[in-house]
Amino acid sequence: MKPRRPAPATPPCQTGPGPRIVPPVKPAEDLCRACGMCCDGTLFDLVRLEPGDDARRLARLGLPLAAARGRQAARFPQPCAALCADGSCRVYADRPGQCRAFECRLLQEAKAGRVSFPAAARRVTAAKRRANQVRRLLRALGDHDEQRALGERFHRTSERLEAGTADPAASAIYADLSLAMHRLKLEAHAHFHTPPAATPESRVAGKLRRG
Questions:
Q1: Comparing C-alpha atoms, which of 190, 197, 181 is closest to residue 133?
Q2: Is residue 139 scored above 90 in pLDDT?
Q3: Which of 78-82, 138-142, 143-147, 205-209 is predicted with the least confidence, judged by mean pLDDT?
Q4: Domain span holding position 47
Q5: pLDDT tens-digit profile of 16-74?
Q6: Which residues share a beta bridge with 178?
């Protein structure tokens, strides 16, 4: 009888006070790690697996997969459990096919030379600032669930406030939140989401929900 193979250990994120050896990276990789919005719940609610993805291995590596049902593929929520604080991916070598294939519009334009990488980095900083403003306003309205995607949190908060009687202070914050979310959506669609014809993105990941 052959011995059973041990389950693969969940790769850790690199942490700790000791010195780190960081290999040289390309500008595109620098941009992606500085951004991370396709993984942190800013741009997408979830990621669906493709037929070639090893769902069992991904689950053993720590991704909280929801099982396939009927025509609905297995999927996992955003923010991604494999995203590290430094923007790296702890399951990068085993990441799903759609994570391998997806390149946001800004990255495509930078790689094509239509925008410089420093300009792209400034665009990322501005977009992340908008996303963080949305997070602050959600927390001010009582939503502290940082493990859910921004679109889902906004949708849930909207339903809660619109179903009840919000006090004037909460109503004012909700107005600011709605405006901040609208601006973030415009930013995402203008500079990060790609047309469905150019990428399988639209059938893989749920975009920001409509407000």
A1: 181
A2: yes
A3: 205-209
A4: 27-207
A5: 554 444 444 489 999 999 999 999 999 999 999 999 999 999 999 999 999 888 888 99
A6: none
Domain count, the chain: 1
* pLDDT at residue number 197: 56
- In whole angstroms, give the CA distance from residue 209 to residue 152: 7
Structure tokens at 198: 């150019």
β-sheet with 44-48: strand ranges across: 75-77, 44-48, 205-207
Quick check: is 16 in a domain?
no
The number of beta carbons lying within 10 Å of the beta carbon of residue 31 is 22
Contact 77, 148 (CB under 8 A): yes
Phi first, then psi: what are they for 32, rounded to 5°?
Answer: -65, -45
Model pTM above 0.85: no
**Nearest C-alpha neighbor of 204 from the set 78, 89, 83:** 78
21: in domain: no
User: Residue 15 falls within a domain, yes or no?
Assistant: no
Would you say residue 17 lies in a domain?
Answer: no
